[in-house]
Amino acid sequence: AALEHVRTKYVLIMQHDRPFTKRADVPRVLAAMEAHPERLKYVGMPTSTTVTHQSHVLSKYRIHIEPWQADDAGLLMMPLIQWYDSTHICEVEYYRKFVFGPRKLVARGGFIEDKFGQAQLADIRARGVEVSHRDWGTFIAAGSGFAEPVVGHLDGRDALNASKFVWTKAEADESDVLQQQEVASRLALSAMSGQAPSVSTAAAMAAEAARLRVAESKRRQAELDS
């Protein structure tokens, strides 16, 4: 649906958990796509996974791919044999007429990487990369300026997992209390029963309980130190 509102020739697709981790010369990639419109329909930004795409597909599928030079400054384009939903630049019309086109390679609301990517891989394995890949037009930027990953993957679960951190005892006690306080506050906010205390009362009770727990942890720490 969002494509209906796009008025540019190209679109940069960036998922919320696939941000740029370093500067990338996007205009240079666009210039290459403008210079080679018959070949470049999709250009993915290199990630820790796709920088080894050449050796990966050779090892897993016995498919041999070679990059080709897209500009005079050493920008290379590595054939991508299976669509990735990671950060990429793509022709809008390619999305409209091919990805979501009459072949119905992607169901409404479906993941392109799933059905479309699998269809692409199957076609390339059946007909050969030299014949089939030109129909798909998917590449990974490589070479000068793109030899290393420029896009990373954020895992929100790591940032929320306190067990990943090393705490001192006082910090651990207080962290545990604060987490309990947050849970208690959320439970209070979600209370639906008419018998439940008011939100303000429940929040105050949770805060007081947390204060008492912190005081108790400090008392126990003092006893251990004495």
Integer-rounded radius of gyration: 26 Å
Q: Residue share in helices?
A: 40-55%
Sheet with the most strands, sense and barrel status: 6 strands, mixed
Percent strand equals 5-15%
Distance linking N and C termini: 67 Å
Strand order of the largest sheet: 1-5-2-6-4-3
Provide a count of the helices. 8
The parts where pLDDT drops under 50 for at least 5 residues are 159-168
Element order: H for helix, E for strand: EHEHEEEHHHEHHH
Q: Average pLDDT across residues? A: 81
Number of strands: 6
Shape: elongated
Global structural class = alpha+beta
Describe the fold and architecture:
The chain has helices at residues 26-35, 53-61, 92-99, 112-127, 129-136, 156-160, 169-189, 199-225; strands spanning 10-13, 42-44, 68-69, 75-79, 88-91, 138-143. The chain has 226 residues and is an alpha+beta fold. A six-stranded mixed beta sheet has the order 1-5-2-6-4-3. Mean pLDDT is 81; it is low at 159-168.
Quick recap of the structure?
The protein is of the alpha+beta class.
Properties at a glance:
single chain; 226 residues; alpha+beta; six-stranded mixed sheet; 8 helices; 46% helix
Write the layout of secondary structure elements.
Layout lengths: L9 E4 L12 H10 L6 E3 L8 H9 L6 E2 L5 E5 L8 E4 H8 L12 H16 L1 H8 L1 E6 L12 H5 L8 H21 L9 H27 L1
